[in-house]
Amino acid sequence: MPLSGPAGGRCHRAAALVAAAVCSIVLSCPGSGAAQDTPSPSAGIPRLDWRPCTPGSPYDCATARVPLDHSAPAGRTIDLAVVRRKATDGAHRIGTLFVNPGGPGGPGTVQVPQNYGSFPKELRERFDIISWDPRGIGNSTAVNCFDSTDGAEAWGRTKPVGFPVGDKERTAWTDAYEDLGRRCEKRDADLLRHVSTADTARDLDLLRQAVGESRLNYFGVSYGTILGATYANLFPGKVRAMVLDSNIAPSAWTNGGRADVRTPTFLRMGSDRSAAATLDRFLDLCGSATMGRCAFSAGSPKATRAKFDQLMQRLRVHPVDTWTYARTVADTVNGLYIVDPGWTDLAHRLQDLWEGRVPKPGAVPPPPPVANPDPYLGDEQAMAVWCGDSPNPRDPAAYHGLEENSARRAGDAGRFWTWAGEPCATWPARAADGYAGPWNKPTAHPVLVVGTRYDPSTSYPDSQAMARELANARLLTHDGYGHTALFNNASSCVKTYESRYFVDGALPPPGTTCRPDKQPFS
Description:
Blueprint: E1 51-52, E2 60-67, E3 77-85, E4 95-100, H1 108-114, H2 121-126, E5 127-132, H3 149-156, H4 167-192, H5 197-210, E6 216-221, H6 223-234, E7 239-245, H7 250-254, H8 265-268, H9 271-287, H10 301-317, H11 325-335, H12 342-354, H13 379-389, H14 398-410, H15 412-420, E8 447-454, H16 460-469, E9 473-481, H17 485-488, H18 492-504, E10 513-514
């Protein structure tokens, strides 16, 4: 799932190689041969009773029971919802590939089936692809601080959409999130303290054992990259192959281990600058195209950037129905995540607003054939992980100044990403057993890090930092656009290198750069 903070609102998400016949000596081949049912687990390892998610579905579902507190395995347990799509070429199956689609707060049991076609063909053929809703999220034992959906929606109406503008809205915003924290602490304080990334990494190791894999194959995108880095340093000897796509730098996640926290996580990550650079590319490419290809084009890059600035200034004073300045900025940043058709759809919405029309609702992807394709995904689920794990300034009054500083360097996107971190200021819980490093433990095999240059959420410098901070990693640069190379399905070059790596351990040469198969609005 595209990484978006609470400011983004509640979300419902929603060139293959010919393989070598045998694995190289670089990577072992656990589970080679026809796909097998899950072996009987040892004590402490969850049993996965697979069954079709819905009648006739190609996906199997199971529930894993794991300890709430891994240091107290005899205590309270929680449930993890798990989904599997078996390898389509069982005769040449290599093993199981675990996938985390991002977030935090991404329900893997929904998003991975929804995006199954984005995975390289050879991975679909040769691996069982498994995902799960991490603890606290979606269809697993979830953080839910309301008695009903109506209660959650009523709370949502107490805060501005996108981010606050002006003193009155800033007060409403901070009061709303302080209230949410109180509700969550009252409802299940123990769960809030045990939804950390380290807790989920330990769950992942139990799932690895439950499917009979001696070492882990893992594909993590966005937030899934910090989960992968955490696993790689908690269980370095258990890594067979790991791709981390659109990265959060460990040093940004942990504030470099410093106790003095002056900058929110998203600004440490450089999300504001990266979103601003991606927006500039969007406007440049749109302005270089005709209105037939980009509805918001003003005939040149310079004129299109000026048109966008004029629209933002106008919306500050004259919203179009409920489309305020802040809502439009938030929609713009989130609209940059997926290039095709996302950028084209964003251009149409901006043009509608320019002409004073309320934009039409975007198309909702069809639900995948799983048991519950629309679980509750309230703001508190992402916050419980993010705020419990990653340090942020604790004074709500500091965020207005941080916003202005960010806006000076990153414009409108800086305001969005600053306020996306503010809910952590009053969040009541910290992770009881988090992981803050070190990040350089040598893994059994190298890690492949993929970074996109123009990403509106996770900056390219964060991918460079991930490759540096891990003990043994290789950076593959995607000289393209959008959040994650995987879900943008943008580059057959990237897919080819990922397939080679997972199948036989071959890394791209140092300094390799891949480009998109086509440019936006071309």
